[in-house]
Amino acid sequence: MSNAALAITAIAAVLFVARMLRGPALADRVISVDGFVSTIVIGVTIASVRPGSGVVESTVLVVAIGGFVGTAILARFIERRGS
Amino acid sequence: MDEVLDAIGAVALVLGALFALLAAIGVHKFRDPYSRMHAAAKSPTLGLVLVTMGAALQIRTIGAVATLTLVAILQLLTSPVGTHLIARAVHLRVEVPQDGVDELRRDDEAVS
After folding, report:
1. What ipTM, to 2 d.p.?
2. 20 to 30 Å CA-CA from B108: which of A76, B20, B65, B98?
3. Number of Cα atoms under 13 Å in the Cβ half of residue A52
4. Residues of A in contact with B51 (CB under 8 A)
5. Which of B16, B36, B95 sits opposite A31 (nearest CB)?
6. Exposed (0-12), middle (13-18) or buried (19+): which is A52, by Cβ within 10 Å?
7. How far is B101 from chain A (nearest CA, A)?
8. How far is the CA of A20 from the CAs of A23, A72, B18, in angstroms?
C-alpha cells in the first residue's frame, strides 16, 4: 500500500514542478514551491513507514520546519523585490 | 487487532497522498495565483494529517506516535501562517491577472 501512496505523491510532485516551470508570475512559482515542499513532507512521512528505508520520523519533523522557514523567506523575498 | 490497525493505516496513507494529488491538480488547473493558493494551502494540510495518522497507526511505537503528532500539530499551526505571508506579499507587490473583482483594491480606490 505504501508503494501506491508513494506513486500518487510522485505524480503530485511532478504536477507542482510543471506549474513551477511554467509560471507565469513569480507568485505562481512561489505557491507551487510551497505546495511542493508540503508534498515532500507527505512523501517522507510515507517513506518512514516502509521497513528498511532508513528514514525515521524525526526526519519528517526537520523537513516540516525547514519547509515553513523556506516559505516565510520566499514571502519576504517577494515583498522586498516586487513582482 | 494488528491487522485492523495496519489496514486503517494503509487506507489513511493512500487518502493523504490523494489529497496531495488534489492540491497539485488544483495548482495546475486554476487560472490566477489566488485560486492556486487556495488549492495549495488547504488540502496538503489535511493530507499530511491523514498521512501522519496512518504512519502512527502502522509504526505503533510511543516515540514515533509522539513525533508524528508533533508534526501534525506543527503543520496545522504553520501552514496558515505561511500562506498568509505569501498572500500578503502577492497582494502588496505583484500585479495579478484575476477573474472577477478585487474587492480590496476597489475599496482602496473608492477611498482615495
Report:
1. 0.86
2. A76
3. 0
4. 5, 42, 45-46
5. B36
6. exposed
7. 19
8. 6, 18, 20
Number of compact structural domains in chain B? 1
Closest to A57 (Cα-Cα) out of B55, B82, B58:
B55
Amino acid present at B43 = S
Instruction: Kindly report, residue by residue over B53-91, the tens digit of the pLDDT.
Output: 999 999 888 988 999 999 999 999 999 999 999 888 888
Phi, psi of B87 (to 5 degrees): -60, -40
Cell of B40: 495549495
Q: Give which of A29, A7, A53 is closest to B33, Cα–Cα.
A: A29
The C-alpha cell at B21 is 494529488
Place of cell 494529488: B21
Which residue has cell 523585490? A81
pTM of the shown model? 0.87
Q: Is A78 on the interface with B (CB under 8 A)?
A: yes
Domains of chain A: 2-81 (1.10.287)
pLDDT in tens, B12-58: 999 999 999 999 999 988 888 888 888 888 899 999 999 999 999 99
Q: How far apart are CA B92 and CA A78, in angstroms?
A: 9
Handedness of CA B29, B35, B41, B45 (dihedral sign): negative
Determine whether A54 is exposed, middle or buried from the number of CB atoms within 10 Å of its CB (0-12, 13-18, 19+): exposed
